Amino acid sequence: QVQLAESGGGSAQAGGSLRLSCVASISTYYYSTDYCMAWFRQAPGKGREGVAAIDSDGTTAYAESVKGRFTISQDNAKNTLYLQMNSLKPEDTAMYYCAADLDGDCVDFGYWGQGTQVTVSS
In Å, how far are 2, 10, 89 from 28, measured between CA atoms? Predict the structure, then answer.
C-alpha cells in the first residue's frame, strides 16, 4: 500500500513563501530503491502541470515557471518530500499534489496524494 499525505498549503501574499510537505507511507511490498517523487499543481479551469521532481539519486527537475523560486527536497529518514516555494506569484495559485513513481523513471506517477491548496494574493 502506498499513501501520500500533503500539508503546508495556505494563503500567502505575492512575494511570500510557503513550504509544502508530503509524508509517504509505503508498505514493504511496494518499496523500491529506485523511485521518483514529484509535485504537480492544477489551477481552476486548467490542466495538471508538473512543478518539480526528484529521483532516488537526488537529481531534480523543475518547470520553467518555477525555476529559481521553488526547491524540491526530500528527507529519507522521515519519508518526507518538501517543496519550498519562495517569491510566490498569484499565478502559483493552485491545488498542489504530491505523486510517486516507484519505477524511478519519472514518467508514470501511479500514486497521488489528496492535494493541498495554495492561494497567492497580489
Answer: 10, 33, 40
Distance CA 109, CA 11 (A): 27
Q: What's the CA gap between 108 and 95, in Å, rounded?
A: 20
Coil, strand, or helix at residue 34? coil
Amino acid at 100: A
Tell me how far CA of residue 8 lies from CA of 1, 31, 49, in angstroms.
24, 25, 19
Q: Is 98 helix (H, G, I), strand (E, B) or coil?
A: strand
- Cα–Cα distance, 59 to 67 (Å, whole number): 14
CA angle 27/84/44 to nearest 5° reads 85
Concatenated DSSP letters for 36-89? Answer: EEEEEEE-TTS-EEEEEEEETT--EEE-TTTTTTEEEEEEGGGTEEEEEE-S--
Q: Over the stretch 55-92, which tens digit does the pLDDT of each residue have?
A: 999 999 999 999 999 999 999 888 999 999 999 999 99
